[in-house]
Amino acid sequence: MKLDRTGLSLIVVVVMLLVSGPFLPSWMVSLLNVSMCYGIVVLGMMLLMRTGLVSFGHGLYYCLGAYAAGLIDQVWKMPDMLLMVAGSIVATAVVSAVLGLLLAKYREIFFAMLSLAFSMILYGLLVKSASLGSTDGFNVAAKTVGGVAVEGDTLRVTVFSVTAVILGIAAFLLHGYLASHRGRLAGAIRDNELRVEYMGASVFATVHFNYVVSAVLAGIGGALMAVNIGHIDPEMTYWPQSGEFVFIAILSGTGSVFAPLGGALVFESVRSFAYEYSPNTWQMVLGITMLVVMIFLPGGLWSLFTRGKAKEAAT
Amino acid sequence: MGARVVSQFIAVLVDGVVYASWLFIIAVGLTLIYGVMKILNIAHGSLYALGAFSAVSLSAAWFSQGYAAMGSFAMLALAAVLVGLVFGPLIERGLLQFLYGKDEVVLVLVTYALFLILEDFIKLVWGVDPLFVQGPNGETPYGLLGNFEVAGLTYPNYNLLLLGVAVLTGLVLTWSLNSTRSGKLLLAVIHDREVSAALGINVSRTYFVTFTIGAFLAAVGGALTAPTVSVVTGMGAEVIVMAFAVVVIGGLGSLPGAALGALIVGMVRAAAVHYAPEVELFSIYFVMAAVLIARPKGLFSGAEVRKI
Question: Which chain A residues are within 8 Å of B114, Cβ to Cβ?
């Protein structure tokens, strides 16, 4: 994989996060933490959108990843952050590989509806499972990272740093994938599936693979969110949560792996400030922002940066 | 033992039909709007909630004047009409008319943004505390109509009202679509928007009227639900996803499909509540997924002509 400008910028951003981590005020650390977790999930949404698919049920994998992390903590009593992330990757990869076999044949509104149905099935199961805390969920806490016990302030900084590194790796790999032969098929599939088939590439296999990748990213985001917030509940797979991911993806645009990361940061900032100053109208602020972006900036916020340049990156 | 099994089975049937009526009233507007405008309207849930909240306010005003409790039914109807006539045209003329022809998924997201806006609008106007449709002495339209008894179980007659409204709505819509001039024009628009416009049908007005009727039906659902529950914020989010299940099972845009979908979801939920309460929610979405897998376009989808 060649180290291009985006790759270099990613490394710079992650290093900057790592260096500044211990000195940032705690409100900013929380804001960045949540943004990074959302950023990882939305990286996956971006990949799906490039393939021409919008999932109204990615909360399924977000929640699954979080519950995998929670179970590793609560049931197997192994509260290791890296183990939790690994567990969420395995769980979401297996489930999405199976569901993907069905979903990879669906398009447009039917894809959105079937993924919605799957995520609501998990919701229906979780709210009725008393052993997992029903609608209240339960608390999750990481006590070791890679086998090393950490606590107190060190833990806070470590969790932040690990999240940043994982985000960097995920974005870096996805960037490489998007530039690869198969990665570039995504846009072709969105434009014309028939031609892709005529060229000898498998639409089904590509859609399936992209679906699994996006699900795993959502799972990692969910597990990291569980560790960062310290609590998980079934709301993570309720449909407004999935809607939120779609929302950020639309807000960001699909031009570059930086788009979802920036979009998630903008979204979280708008939300926390709007929530701070007018708790009853923050959704209204988000809704209006979304309408404005969709009507005036169909390419998302990222298109502001690519205006005037060659449009190939944006489409 | 045998008698108990039978009475429980009858209870499932009755609950199922009542629940199906309620679902049909809500879902039929959704499927109508999708059928004509190809918009899967998430804001339908907000219109439903607006209907419920308006019903609370209007009936509170009615009760506070000391008028006869029976009149609160008129207030429920008035709430639905007001919400339909105010928000339907506002949303269609103010926003949606500029977006026709965009991708279906983009339109879903537009209505999602609208949903977020309306949710907060409701909080701003009515606050966040639970509200009830109730008179000064605790009388509600739910209890006013008396009860009926089936197999030893007592049900409020209000449920019959729900059933009546559902059947009437279905019949009126079917009749006006198939047997009136404007209904036939509407069918032409559904079939081919551009050719209809070329033949002189006012497509923009058709959309306007359809959306207003759809909004009215959502508000009817909300207004009729208001006396039976505590009216809280977030009730729209819960309902809309269930309404999606109904219309997806039946086939998006199909009237008989919405009726069948409502019956299936209603019966499944009633059976789950009585026999296995822990799978209540799960069962609905399980059926939704199963139908989508077996028949991706729903049970009532006909063959589709592919346009190149």
Answer: 287, 291
